[in-house]
Specification:
The complex is a heterodimer of chains A (243) and B (454).
Chain A: E1 11-22, E2 25-37, E3 42-46, H1 53-61, E4 68-73, E5 76-77, H2 83-92, E6 94-97, H3 109-119, H4 124-137, H5 153-165, E7 171-175, H6 183-200, E8 203-208, H7 211-217, E9 220-225, E10 228-234
Helix pairs in contact in A: 3-4, 3-5, 4-5, 5-6
Chain B: H1 3-16, H2 18-56, E1 60-64, H3 91-98, E2 103-108, E3 111-118, E4 121-130, E5 144-145, E6 155-159, H4 160-166, H5 179-188, H6 191-198, E7 202-210, E8 222-235, E9 248-251, H7 252-257, E10 275-280, H8 286-295, E11 299-302, H9 303-346, H10 348-356, H11 361-404, H12 417-443, H13 447-452
Classes of the chains: A alpha/beta (243), B alpha+beta (454).
Chain lengths: 243, 454
């Protein structure tokens, strides 16, 4: 899928700032970033530790609020949304995948995947059926009743992707999704994300510190340092992100 | 989140920390059990007393001579009483009261100690005059033999204990032996068998008659008299009756005709009654008649008065018991706060995850709230059962003691449906209140912070 440059951007960030007070000093985690992401694009946020890429992702996910500036996702200015509206945004517009998978250990895989639909008040039977299908799609059909601790890292991350996509978000935010996986499993997970992006037509923003990974999968690479955008590189991924 | 999903999530969370949550729930159960057992004891005692009072009759009113009876609201101390307020409770007054609207009858309460001779034996007993209207009441509907043939008949019905005594059976009476022995022996007496031996026999009553009129010094003359009565019935009256161990019963009119000297006689110039028993059409008329009688210058007392003060007394008593019972529940509620605050610490990351995937603040709050509520419901139900068992044990223990004392069994303990519902409801409300702070705290957690928590 090719990003559509004529349609309005999926994400528009304008002079975005996120400052943290640490004792007497102020940490500028995000310091005046302005950018746009086209709908359907696959963007990698790259940078060293502490460059502000995860802070930017949290602002995009509506988990955090900016100190100044604006984040507009599909026409919604996240800074203007109430706590409740932000929860709705996380439920229906943005799906998240984390480095440490973040599945709830006391729930089975199918329960983890159907959890967002509980918040969306989907009926139980429909929820279970959709969750099973989603897990089948990511190759976890025989593992439905297993708890996350009984699964490998790759399997857990696939379940986390199934959960992130269960409410059909327009934006998938992935924070180092392969960070805890070996390179082969990491490649499997990246291929899964690419496939899902193509199938669902969503925009993907992925945080990584591995340039090679970004070059293989992302269409665009944004480099961050000290909370600032220092480079914006258009990439031709070798691995089908432009499909 | 839909309510069934919420409850499902809450119960699943409770099951995950089963030991800790069970201990908290047991705490609530103990609190509810103490509340239920305390309250049910209060309610049981109130019921027990109410039932006894009801047996005396809701349609009855006792009218007293105010001047003679401090209980009737007048001065027992004559020097302080106002003579203008005092009115003699004489025949004229009785007739006047009997004509009041709603009154069925007004009869004097005739009760005097007499000496009875039966063959060679002489025994003292209380004699009571009875109107025909008591014939249909519980106390007299299983008389062995028969009721009086008429109000003028020289006939007597006697209590089975007194019958046994007259027949020379060795019966311990209260005051002679210990109460326990006396009660056990009374219970063992067979009224039917005693009736076969004594019915139709003569009983001679020795009493003191007050002669009509007064002498010039304001005194009056008395004469020793003797009259022969025919025993027509033997009564088996239980301990809860106001006629228990009364000895001998005579037709009221016949007893009145004897003009037995009354305790009040020496102080008044004309014969007066100690008390009048006024029977009204139904309990609705009691208050109006009571008010009128009081205006007439007499003291009056009804079971409704007793019930009213009983209810007031028990309201305070029940509140007192309830406060004590609730203390344990208050302690248990602190357990809920503690458990849920601990749960928030443990599940901090889980809360972060839930928020990241779309849970709203109110979803998170409701999950913790539901957990507190579920502990409340479970604790309430188990607590009511536990309280019921404690109550049964108290009742059982009390009745073992009463049986050994030879007294009839009683139900000192009563669990009403409103107490069951109220106790469970109260447990839920207390649990929800206790869950308020932890739930609010959980809902306000910053998701970024929570996700960082390991």
């Amino acid at each position: 899928m090719t990003p559509n440059s004529s349609s309005p951007p999926a994400v528009r960030i304008d002079n975005l700032q996120r400052h943290f007070q640490m004792g007497t000093s102020v940490v500028r985690a995000v310091d005046g970033i302005t950018l746009e992401v086209a709908a359907g694009d696959f963007v990698a946020l790259l940078g060293a530790s502490g460059s502000g890429k995860s802070s930017l992702l949290n602002l995009l996910a509506g988990l955090d609020r900016p100190t100044a500036g604006s984040v507009v996702v599909h026409g919604k200015d996240l800074a203007q949304l109430s706590r409740n509206e932000l929860a709705g945004y996380r439920l229906r517009t943005a799906g998240m995948v984390f480095q440490s998978f973040n599945l709830i250990p006391t729930m089975s895989l199918v329960e983890n995947v159907e959890l967002p639909m509980r918040f969306a008040e989907v009926d139980r039977a429909e929820r279970l059926s959709l969750a099973k299908k989603a897990l089948e799609r990511v190759g976890l059909a025989p593992r439905l009743a297993h708890r996350p601790t009984e699964l490998s890292g790759g399997e857990q991350q696939r379940a986390a992707i199934a959960r992130a996509l269960i409410n059909h978000p327009q934006l998938l935010l992935a924070d180092e999704p392969t960070g805890n996986l070996d390179s082969r499993t990491g490649a499997e997970i990246m291929n899964l994300i690419v496939e899902c992006r193509a199938a669902l037509g969503m925009t993907v923003v992925m945080v990584t510190h591995e340039r090679a990974l970004a070059e293989r999968y992302a269409r665009r690479m944004l480099f961050l340092a000290d909370g600032k955008l220092i480079d914006d590189v258009v990439n031709s991924p070798e691995n089908g992100a432009s499909r | 989140m839909k309510t069934p999903d919420l409850l499902d999530l809450a119960t699943r969370n409770l099951r995950e920390s089963i030991l800790r949550n069970s201990l908290t729930t047991i705490g609530i159960s103990v609190g509810v059990a103490s509340l239920v057992s305390m309250m049910s004891l209060g309610i049981g005692l109130q019921r027990m007393i109410s039932v006894r009072l009801e047996r005396v009759g809701f349609d009855l009113l006792t009218v007293m001579n105010r001047a003679n009876n401090p209980m009737a609201g007048g001065g027992g101390d004559l020097s302080q009483s106002n003579p203008a307020d005092e009115r003699a409770l004489d025949e004229a007054a009785r007739l006047e009261i009997e004509k009041l609207p709603g009154v069925v009858e007004a009869y004097p309460q005739i009760r005097f100690p007499g000496e009875f001779a039966f063959g060679d034996l002489t025994r003292r007993a209380i004699s009571t005059g009875l109107p025909d209207s008591v014939k249909t009441t519980d106390d007299f509907n299983n008389v062995k033999g028969r009721f009086f043939s008429s109000q003028q008949a020289a006939e007597a019905m006697i209590d089975k204990t007194f019958a046994a005594e007259l027949l020379g059976k060795n019966v311990a009476r209260p005051g002679r032996g210990i109460l326990k022995k006396a009660l056990a022996q009374t219970a063992a007496l067979d009224a039917g068998a005693l009736a076969k031996e004594i019915l139709g026999k003569d009983l001679v009553l020795n009493y003191t008659e007050r002669l009509a009129g007064n002498d010039q010094a304001g005194g009056y003359s008395v004469l020793p008299r003797q009259t022969t009565l025919k025993v027509v019935g033997v009564l088996d009256i239980d301990m809860q009756s106001r006629y228990f161990r009364m000895g001998v019963f005579l037709p009221l009119k016949f007893a009145q005709g004897l003009r037995v000297m009354q305790f009040t006689d020496p102080r008044v110039t004309t014969p007066v009654y100690n008390n009048l028993i006024v029977r009204v059409k139904d309990s609705a008329h009691v208050q109006a008649v009571e008010d009128t009688v009081k205006k007439m210058g007499f003291g009056a007392f009804s079971i409704q008065d007793a019930m009213r003060s009983l209810r007031q007394g028990f309201a305070v008593f029940d509140m007192f018991l309830g406060v004590f019972g609730s203390l344990a529940l208050a302690v248990a509620s602190i357990g809920i706060v503690n458990t849920l605050v601990m749960a928030i610490l443990e599940r901090r990351r889980e809360i972060g995850i839930m928020k990241a995937i779309g849970a709203s603040d109110s979803d998170v709050k409701r999950v913790f709230f539901a957990e507190a509520g579920a502990m409340g419901v479970l604790g309430g139900v188990v607590g009511v059962l536990l309280g019921w068992l404690i109550g049964r044990a108290i009742s059982f223990g009390t009745n073992i003691y009463l049986t050994r004392q030879g007294a009839p069994n009683v139900e000192v303990w009563y669990v009403s449906w409103w107490l069951v519902g109220g106790a469970i409801g109260f447990a839920v409300v207390v649990s929800l209140l206790a869950g308020w702070y932890p739930a609010s705290r959980a809902s306000r957690l910053d998701p970024v912070e929570a996700l960082r928590y390991q």
